[in-house]
């Protein structure tokens, strides 16, 4: 009888330790947001967006980061829709769809349609339209 109690106690202890180890481990996953940006047109930010690039279009500086376009208004940065003809050095890593049109392959991100344009410094992506 004592052996059975000891065995049951040992099993309960091992099960508790095993559960505790499992509870302290965290899965190694990353949250990836697929789809449109978290911003909306008209939203204003107090700081310049992280890792943004300056785009000069019609002699006006605009800012671009991860598929979102900004312009400086006073001391804040306002989210805007891009203008047709703007060119960006890269598209976002996730959420970009490829579509085939009569004019060739196009890329769509958050309702904005881009085409790849070869330049001396590599490929840029030009805004050519918007999804309806």
What does this entry look like structurally?
With 132 residues, this protein is an alpha+beta fold. 17% of the residues lie in helices and 41% in strands. The chain has 1 helix and 10 strands; from the N terminus they run αββββββββββ. The chain has a 5-stranded antiparallel beta sheet, with no helix packed on it. A hairpin with a 2-residue loop joins strand 4 (68-73) and strand 5 (76-80). The relative contact order is 0.13. Residues 16-37 have low confidence and may be disordered.
In short:
The chain is of the alpha+beta class. It is built from one helix and ten strands; from the N terminus they run αββββββββββ.
Main sheet strand line-up: 1-5-4-3-2
* N-C termini distance: 77 Å
From the helix content, strand content and strand pairing, which structural class follows?
Answer: alpha+beta
> Helix count?
1
Low-confidence stretches: 16-37
Major sheet: size, sense and barrel closure?
5 strands, antiparallel
- The helix/strand order is HEEEEEEEEEE
Strand content: 35-45%
Share of helix, binned: 10-25%
Number of strands: 10
Radius of gyration: 26 Å
């Amino acid at each position: 009888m004592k052996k059975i109690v000891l065995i049951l106690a040992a099993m309960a202890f091992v099960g508790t330790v095993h559960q505790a180890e499992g509870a302290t481990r965290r899965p190694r996953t990353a949250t990836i947001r697929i789809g449109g940006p978290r911003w909306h047109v008209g939203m204003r930010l107090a700081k310049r967006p992280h890792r943004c690039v300056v785009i000069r279009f019609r002699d006006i500086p605009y800012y671009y980061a991860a598929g979102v376009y900004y312009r400086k208004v006073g001391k804040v940065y306002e989210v805007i829709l891009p203008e047709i003809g703007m060119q960006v050095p890269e598209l976002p890593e996730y959420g970009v769809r490829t579509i085939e049109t009569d004019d060739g392959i196009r890329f769509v991100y958050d309702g904005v349609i881009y085409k790849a344009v070869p330049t001396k410094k590599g490929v840029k992506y030009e805004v050519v339209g918007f999804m309806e």
